[in-house]
Amino acid sequence: MRIYTAHLRQGAAPKLVREGFSWGALIFGCLWLFLQGAWIPGLLALAMEVLIGVLTTDGARLTLELGLAVLLGLTGNDLVRWSIFRRGYRLVLVLAARDVESAFARLLAVRPDLAGTFLPAGAAR
Predict the structure, then answer these.
(1) Which residues does 13 contact at the CB level (< 8 Å), separation at least 6?
(2) 116 or 26, greater pLDDT
(3) pTM given for the model
(4) Contact in structure between 4 and 95 (CB atoms under 8 Å)
(5) Chain centroid to CA 57
(6) Which of 95, 88, 92, 81 is nearest to 41 (CA)?
């Protein structure tokens, strides 16, 4: 089972963010953050990558880039959560589910009033 946090904003579809380590953030870094909509952390990570590339030598560069990648992997989902909080989403529920679809199903089981806000008409069972 994985842990997800459910975030809501008035008039918008709920967002689920997985807890824990992010392999996507580790491997793809700032690109992954941009794709998740975490623009500020993505720009800061990109600035760090540029600074590491410009200000360090080969040995230190590799160490610092690996360190930044691990740091992004450890905090990537938290940075996404912070970014959606800044856009007006609020944490409403913590869910345990095996995947994101199951987490949405659990969210709808707890909050059936949300079905009309992000599902097309007739899609809710």
Answers:
(1) 117, 118
(2) 26
(3) 0.86
(4) yes
(5) 32
(6) 81
